[in-house]
Request: fold
Amino acid sequence: MRRVLSSPFVVAPLAFVFLVVAGCRKSDKIPDSQAYERYESAAGGYAFDAPKGWSRNETPPAVAFTEGRKGVSVGFQERDAAPTAASVRDNEAKALESSGREVKVASVEDVTLPAGPAVVIKYTSVSEPEPISGKQVPLRNETVVYYTPGKLVSITFWSPREADNQKHWDRMAQSFGWI
Reply:
């Protein structure tokens, strides 16, 4: 049986993009000096290092951290079977493409991280229109999908395409663990 608590592939990544602050011109690049603090979700049974000082929006077991036009969101779902790159490509990646704003999936691959096997989806999209200007920003996104029996957690990172935040995304993805 599969009971969805919040769709980690469509709802969390897209819903939390609405948290982008219009007119906020903080740097799109995460600074090398960015501090992190451990975030734990008792409801989701996971923890990871989240950017310290960013706005946080929680609907346990989901959470999002945003600053300007960049962010990280975590979605949770009960799941009976572990996802594979093939199953994610056939299901969740297609759902992203059909429901997002100009979503184009670049790759879906199996990886091994400290928390165990995971699936990484890399894709591009555009932001929601800014309320005043209507401007949409091209985004680079990455979703890392983790599984433990009965639970699937996805961490989605996004930022404007020109901002290279990969090392920070990798740091957060590597820090993920089950509690």
